[in-house]
Write a structure and sequence with these properties.
2 copies of one chain form a homodimer.
Chain A: E1 8-11, H1 25-37, E2 42-43, H2 57-68, H3 86-99, E3 104-106, H4 117-131, E4 138-142, H5 144-147, H6 153-162, E5 167-172, H7 177-187, E6 193-196, H8 202-207, E7 212-214, H9 222-230, H10 237-251, H11 256-267, H12 285-297
Helix pairs in contact in A: 1-2, 2-3, 3-4, 4-6, 9-10
Chain lengths: 304, 304
């Protein structure tokens, strides 16, 4: 089986809601196509920054199918499919694999805290076995600041040993470079693909054997982030990296998801894009103005 | 509208799984009827100890309907209906209200951490408005050790002011009596019904204006806990309380949900009851033996 393995810059595509809080598939597909045309190699739809867990399983399935039937190749999709309920994870994963997605990005079940490595192993194991499809490429999603349930190195080791074909890599959103480095050192040489969870670590990740990044701000700054990926072996890589790190620093002064939606709403002249589902709250108009002004000062343009 | 308001001892009924991890409605209804016959005034089905978040929405709906059609009055049911996704919370809540359930116990959306009071207010507000049924009695579920998203006193105040009929009370599973006391002091006199989240605080809760407890260990020790509720004004209330506190202390030396299932499996001579869904792991047989032996020493009997 020949597989095109995901790498480069992937965006956890933000999910548009109408004013009545219903998901908007048209805007979603438009944004997806824009991202792919502007530097993203693929889309980790239904990530944390997609408000995935604020969507029902049916809403996620319908949105993913809409993408595939509206100009987005499944080879460019790595949807989030990890839920608290095993049955939901199995259903979403089987659906994504059935559509031919390049991979799935899988959160651990995140309601219970302090769960054992054995319990997490059983969770991923049950999903892999129940989906039972050789096409499955599973990327583990390590995001302890939000999920509060980490993916430890011994757990990765155990999963890789048992499912060397299905377990394809990891997104590290710990914000802790030492952790990313440890995962790279332990597994990168065996073909386990590590994505940095923020473009701040993109260059370091590439230099230590990683394959790219899956980052929130790729939703608004894909071209510049892609330039770092393309040029990571070049002499000006550090300068390019410093630029995207600076842009990220401006955005993350604000709550990330509302900030991304505010930038997109402003950049596309489409105010409804700013809508978020509770428990999130959109930026105030003052915050939006301030963020926009600061990005202008930085010479940042959404459509570039 | 005359309503029978829940009070007394409610069990977050544990959910039985078969060895293949599918939910078992027959065992579930049998356990529910046993609880109601042995001291429970009602069942907070689909609570934390029910592994509710390890079930899909469809599984929860099917199990709840099975209870109602198999001898459990909806007047004795307060199912958990709070999910990460607004649309799931609305669907489960509308379903429970439609069945005539006495109330619903609602977690805040628990994926995003550090969310604002405004965001949580909007979440509960949207659920109440979208369900749009005067029969809705919503109990807020405060369990910061697990959900990591608290229900603050200012949030309760704001919800009560806007929805005085729908917002009926709170279960406090903070494990912090000072918090329970603050909620009681602030709202109990206005008819806001506070349940302690553990029977350890049952007597204190009753003495300060609370209405009962919703506690994990009510799954295995309902009669003794009910005796405290019945006798809380009597001279021997403290002695009765000390007994149930001691039993609880034995059980909670072990991971709570696997321990409860182990006790039920042993007491009913039904080993399949010990099954849990990942990410939980059942007790080892050594742990099970030890727990059983220690409960025997305490003179504890499941069927009493």
């Amino acid at each position: 089986m020949t597989l095109h393995r995901p790498g480069g810059v992937w965006a956890p595509a933000i999910t548009p809601f109408r004013h009545d809080l219903s998901p908007d598939p048209e805007r979603f597909a438009r944004h997806a196509r824009w991202l792919l045309a502007n530097g993203c190699s693929g889309l980790a739809a239904f990530g944390t920054n997609s408000e995935a867990n604020s969507l029902s399983v049916e809403e996620r399935i319908a949105l993913l199918e809409f993408l595939v039937t509206h100009g987005v190749s499944p080879a460019c999709l790595m949807p989030g499919t990890g839920c608290c309920a095993l049955t939901d994870s199995v259903r979403l994963t089987a659906h994504a694999v059935g559509l031919g997605c390049a991979g799935v990005l899988m959160l651990p079940p995140f309601y219970y805290k302090g769960v054992s490595e054995e319990g997490l192993f059983r969770n991923f194991s049950e999903v892999i076995e129940r989906v039972g499809d050789a096409r499955l490429r599973l990327y583990l999603y390590h995001i302890p600041p939000v999920a509060q349930v980490p993916i430890s190195i011994p757990l990765i080791e155990r999963l890789l040993k048992r499912y060397p074909d299905a377990v394809a890599g990891l997104k590290d959103s710990s914000g802790d470079w030492n952790n990313t480095k440890s995962v790279l050192d332990a597994f990168a040489s065996t073909g386990f693909d590590v994505f940095a969870g923020s473009e701040v670590f993109l260059l370091s990740n590439m230099r230590h054997g990683g394959v790219g990044c899956i980052s929130a701000t790729a939703n608004v700054n894909p071209a510049a982030i892609h330039r770092v990926f393309e040029n990571w072996r070049e002499p000006d890589a550090d300068r390019l990296q410093a630029e995207i790190t600076a842009t990220r620093a401006v955005v993350q002064k604000y709550p990330m998801i509302p900030a991304l939606k505010s930038i997109v709403a402003r950049g596309f002249g489409d105010p409804e894009w700013a809508t978020v589902r509770p428990p999130l709250v959109e930026l105030t108009s003052d915050q939006s103005e301030l963020l926009g002004a600061e990005l202008d000062t930085h010479g940042f343009k959404l459509v570039g």
